[in-house]
Specification:
Blueprint: E1 2-4, H1 20-35, H2 40-45, E2 49-59, E3 68-78, E4 82-90, E5 96-107, H3 118-124
Antiparallel strand pairs: 1-3, 2-5, 3-4, 4-5
C-alpha cells in the first residue's frame, strides 16, 4: 500500500508523529485482507472479529511531510486463533522507516477467543 505524508500526519518538527504509524499499518492490514478477498466488515457481521493483542514498532528513520511511503504487509505466522502480521514501511528513496509486528486474536461478538474460520485461514496462508 502506498500513502503520501500529509501535514496532519506530522508533529511540530515536521516529522511523522510516531502514533500515526499505527494508523498506517492498520490501513495496510485492511487492504491486505481485501487483497485476499476477505472483507473485515463481512467477517465482523458474521461474528468473526480481530483484536490487537500485541504491537511492536521499531522506528528506523524519520518520515517527513510530503514523503511517499510504501507499506509492505505479510502474514508471518498463523495459528488456531492468532495471526502475526509483519510490516515494513519505506520512503520514496527506499529507506526503511519502520518495521512492525502485530499479533491479532480472533474473537467472537463477546470478545472471547475463537478459532479462525478455515476458509479465512486458506485465504491468508
Amino acid at each position: 500500500m502506498k500513502i503520501r505524508v500529509y501535514y496532519h500526519h506530522t508533529d511540530c518538527g515536521g516529522v511523522v508523529y510516531y502514533a500515526n504509524y499505527l494508523n498506517f499499518i492498520e490501513e495496510a492490514r485492511t487492504e491486505y485482507f481485501a487483497s485476499k478477498n476477505a472483507s473485515i466488515k463481512q467477517l465482523a457481521d458474521s461474528g468473526v472479529m480481530f483484536v490487537v493483542a500485541r504491537q511492536e514498532v521499531d522506528y528506523k528513520f524519520p518520515a517527513v511531510y510530503a514523503d511517499e511511503l510504501e507499506i509492505l504487509t505479510q502474514v508471518g505466522a498463523l495459528s488456531g486463533v492468532r495471526i502475526e502480521f509483519l510490516h515494513e514501511i519505506y520512503n520514496q528513496n527506499g529507506q526503511l522507516i519502520v518495521k512492525a509486528r502485530t499479533i491479532l486474536v480472533c474473537v467472537d461478538s463477546h470478545l472471547k477467543p475463537q478459532a479462525i474460520p478455515e476458509e479465512l485461514r486458506k485465504k491468508l496462508s
